[in-house]
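I'm stuck. Please check this protein.
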Amino acid sequence: MIARIPAVCLAVAAILPAHARTWTSSTGKTVEAEFVGMQGTTVTLRTPDGRQLGIAIGSLSAADQDYLLARPRAETAAKPAGRSPTDILAEIARVGPTTPAWWATVQMRTPSTLDLTGTYRPKAWEPQKAYGAYFWSIISPNPGRWREGIKLHTQAMEVRQKDKDALLQCMSSLADAYLRYEKDHARAAHWWTRAIQMGWSPPPEPAAGLAECFFRLGSATMAAETLRKHGSVCGAAVKLLAEMGDTDGAIRIAEQMAQSTPEAGHVYAGNVCRLAGDLARAAGYYEKALAVKHGGRRLAQYQQRARDALQAMELYDKLDVSRVRDGTHQGSCAGYRGPVEVQVRVAAGRIAEARVSRHREDEYFFHLTVPELPDRIVKANTVKGVDTVTGATVTGEAILNAAAQALRSGMN
């Protein structure tokens, strides 16, 4: 079973000499990769595009298992990686309370009618008065105003000093904005941590956000402990654990989700297995999602995601970029709001460009995935094993599946 290994390993692995070889699974699947290290029953490999894979030794061919056993013990020792909690907490304490360098350059355009206390209860959608509606209608859809949104959260915190519940909620919103808008992990972690110190109990999604900050700052251990401590059962936690290489932990949380919303939990579990390379198990989870008769309000959407995933896996199995004709090819897949169309340009047997040509997604989620996800496809020269972007799973899945369709349509 293949799993993602923390990105902090990349800096260490990048300085090691490359000795790529062909690895074969017990089912006959192959991958070109170099050996990085081995710990317990897992071997770590690095592919030519820089991705690191954690593979259960028992899932490899007998020849590969013999190869690993024959390596000197010193070579198979796991390479140290990551930063100490002391260093990370020191960075958060140093950077977190400060304002970013861009702060003074941001011009505020907040309407005078906007209620910064968060107490206004609208009878309809009133973005010029209601704080949450203003963010969803004005700030989030416009990346050019994201920094303005961060400053606005800070102003609202000043207004809410005497209302502890409203203040803590605003702190969480500020942390989330630093994470999603700016990928500023130290400042995001600072505000979530400060809210917790003031007695706030984080819901699953913010807890997963704090865990992601610790992971991006260099500690998978701190991230895992945060998820455990706060009992974060949500899609964001599933994705984060999968990216950290904890496939079993990710599936465990997905199965917990399935107890209340089976269609969501089964789709997330399927996505984890698919990313790990266990396609048979992934298909089983997707089939479970399709078998749900009575689910939540997003039942139809999750079941469409399951159908798209099953179709994509079939495409992935037949996909060979070296056989795709030179030129631009197009594919389409259902996103959150409608079809997402992707164009993939191939030149000399490699993916030269991938871009979203048409969509109806919410701008906030769309801008989280573009240009990062198309760039990942180009760098990997495939859609296999490419992960979606945290915070925009549905849109990311649609982009990957549409790209797979585009490539498949151009195969000779």
Summary: The longest strand covers residues 30-39. Residues 1-18, 72-81 have pLDDT under 50 and may be disordered. The first helix runs from residue 9 to 13. The chain is about 50% helix and 15% strand.
